[in-house]
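During the reporting period the student researcher (J.K.) took over the structure-prediction task from the postdoctoral fellow and processed the backlog of single-chain submissions. One of the processed entries is reproduced below for the supervisory committee.
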Amino acid sequence: MMSKGPFSGPKNGSPSISDDRLSSGTSGRQRFNLSRWAIGHPSIARFLFGLIILSGVFGLMNMGQKEDPDFTFRVMVIQALWPGASIEDMQNQVVNKIERKLQETPHLDFVRSYSRAGSTIITLQVKGDTNAQQVADAFYQVRKKGRRHPLRAPVRHRRALLQR
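J.K. obtained the following structure tokens:
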């Protein structure tokens, strides 16, 4: 007996296994073949395909259109410029006064400042558990304090401020 290939037939009296049962992986039961079913039922397949497309278009049209989510910045940056002032002048006559006023801000987490000759940057951060309305109110209070109590430059630097 001459064999044509490894799956050509039974060897040594072993039972043959059909190709369908080999591909299905279950004993005697075939897997559902969606492609074969769609070819056999073209009108139902087209209907289901159209239904899927229409539901996708409907879902896309009713999806939210917000570009950015609602969020609140809890950090305010204050910059003070004083041309010609030294670092010590900026620290003693500008930063310390501003920081003292900022300590009165409601819901304050921390204040951090960075000074250079002639300029300073002060960062104010509000606590993370503060809601958006309270953050807006705290920032409004800071702006109001800045307008109500403007800093005055000492006499020796007023000329430099007026010239620029």
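The committee noted the following: The helical segments are 19-24, 34-40, 42-61, 87-102, 132-148, 155-163.
J.K. will present the remaining backlog at the next meeting.
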